[in-house]
């Protein structure tokens, strides 16, 4: 027999991409999911392959030093039936000189970039051919993959959807901001693989790191550490919370992960400036979805940052409602992290499913700024000793807050009201643009028997500060929404639930605030020394907050913190109430003109009205959407936008992909920043 000579081959990128749901990553490279067969075609010249005469075998290798024992190299012959335990190659069909072969990895294979080599031999004479590279991803569709997710709609949302909503604002006024995850956009996959290859564990022991890339728990921990740069580890993002963002991008200005990841790569893996919690979480979500691990961004309102681990957040107020910064413990208005879906074979049964991962640098875990994966089930059950970092997240959703009012003589009075941590834990619903409340997955109902058992297990005495019916009650209410550029009213509502008249002092104070709990200058104040309350009566005291007072110091978080302090003269009791008012930005209006169809020009008309009494200068619109626009489209306005005037422009784009897409817009200017808008567009497929 003459030697078998391989002339050409075809990795069938398009067909395999369709079958493995990776087609949106483009047809330039083969991207497949583990445990699922993919087909390649070999064309031989001279003569065709003959079974029994010719031997065909493949080599797959990943990482810089592949070895069989660590799962980074595999050598396997072409056979008649697939091998369940390892890599396999099976002849599918033969047509003259061309041979179709189905290759399949085990569902526990390491993910990453592989090289594929063919060895063809006849009578001990052989040749070796380098066929090409391919990338292997986790497979949420395979029942034996540790990231297997049963529901197809959930797989579509948490693995395949490139756009989403992230919840922000305040507990009493939840807002959503659109985000372009863009995990299938050009170059993102190679950047995610580069991120794995710049992580310190890889640099310390490349072979060990690559051999552990079959485990989503390991990958999650690496990604959580690599999204921040607090360990001098060439991480993706630098965090900043002091409102000084001039030497970078303000965290509020980002609209997606693609821009951030591309900048990181372009500037030699230097940290991109700047991120805050939702930016860290969204970039981690992009990387995890890109690698095939189902993931979502979640938001916890009134999130505790318990630095000393005692599950109590002590806050100190002066008699005039000023916060005293003696405690490092903070309450964040909201805090975002990621949940990723995976089995936990490293733990006892019962902890598979959603795992919390927090890439925002807060505390070190095993010497590194990362957090998780922590089984959400373990957080709910108070199993604080399990891996990883459960006590920290448990505190974020369960800590007590105690307000101490410091009197003139430095004595302290404990407030009879404790603000509640871990509220309205939120994520985007599956397949819809609505909010799903997942608080029940983190904690049992307040006051329930199960909650008491969990706290006993976690050695946490929940302070029994349930609202007593007796005594004085204090709440802060808002009559209607507060709009940027306008004055608004807040009301302190006092209830006297006793049978006697009460005389009190009421302090009301408003300050601009950041979402991580820090406050700026005062922008409204009232001090009433004689508030008389008839028995069983209610009184409402208004405070008007003026734009001319808050406008200059409003941070990009658009929050105003209102503190009310009620001191009863007779008993000296103090009641505290706190509310964060979210100042609403104007709406960005987006109209789509024309018939939305794949690979056909479409026009978006984008407009915004300046709500302020002063002109807006240095105005910029940034538009992007995975599968819609080619990267980011930036429109800088040459003229200022006058007060109450509308600015409008048109943008042409050619959608590359069919299906439901989001066109996202961010608006920046000197006085109005981080204004977001989006429009859902359904793109019809190109006619065949």
Automatic annotation (TrEMBL):
Any one annotated GO CC term: chromosome
Principal cellular location given in the protein's record: membrane
Active site (catalytic residues): 277, 335, 358
Positions of the Transglutaminase-like domain: 269-361
Domain of life of the source: Eukaryota
Cofactor: Ca(2+)
PANTHER family: PROTEIN-GLUTAMINE GAMMA-GLUTAMYLTRANSFERASE, PROTEIN-GLUTAMINE GAMMA-GLUTAMYLTRANSFERASE 2
Family per record: Belongs to the transglutaminase superfamily. Transglutaminase family.
Catalytic reactions of this protein: L-glutaminyl-[protein] + H2O = L-glutamyl-[protein] + NH4(+); L-glutaminyl-[protein] + L-lysyl-[protein] = [protein]-L-lysyl-N(6)-5-L-glutamyl-[protein] + NH4(+); L-glutaminyl-[protein] + (R)-noradrenaline = 5-(R)-noradrenalinyl-L-glutamyl-[protein] + NH4(+); L-glutaminyl-[protein] + histamine = 5-histaminyl-L-glutamyl-[protein] + NH4(+)
GO molecular function terms noted in the UniProt entry: GTP binding; metal ion binding; peptidase activity; protein-glutamine gamma-glutamyltransferase activity; protein-glutamine glutaminase activity
Protein name as it appears in the record: Protein-glutamine gamma-glutamyltransferase 2
InterPro entries: Ig-like_fold (IPR013783), Ig_E-set (IPR014756), Papain-like_cys_pep_sf (IPR038765), Transglutaminase (IPR050779), Transglutaminase-like (IPR002931), Transglutaminase-like_sf (IPR036985), Transglutaminase_animal (IPR023608), Transglutaminase_AS (IPR013808)
SMART domains per the UniProt record, alphabetical: TGc (SM00460)
GO biological process: proteolysis
Keywords: Acyltransferase, Calcium, Cell membrane, Chromosome, Cytoplasm, Extracellular matrix, GTP-binding, Hydrolase, Membrane, Metal-binding, Mitochondrion, Nucleotide-binding, Nucleus, Protease, Secreted, Transferase
Annotated Ca(2+) binding sites: 398, 400, 446, 451
Cellular localization per UniProt: Cell membrane; Chromosome; Cytoplasm, Cytosol; Mitochondrion
Details of cofactor binding: Binds 1 Ca(2+) ion per subunit.
Record-linked Pfam families: Transglut_C, Transglut_core, Transglut_N
Record-listed E.C. numbers: 2.3.2.13, 3.5.1.44
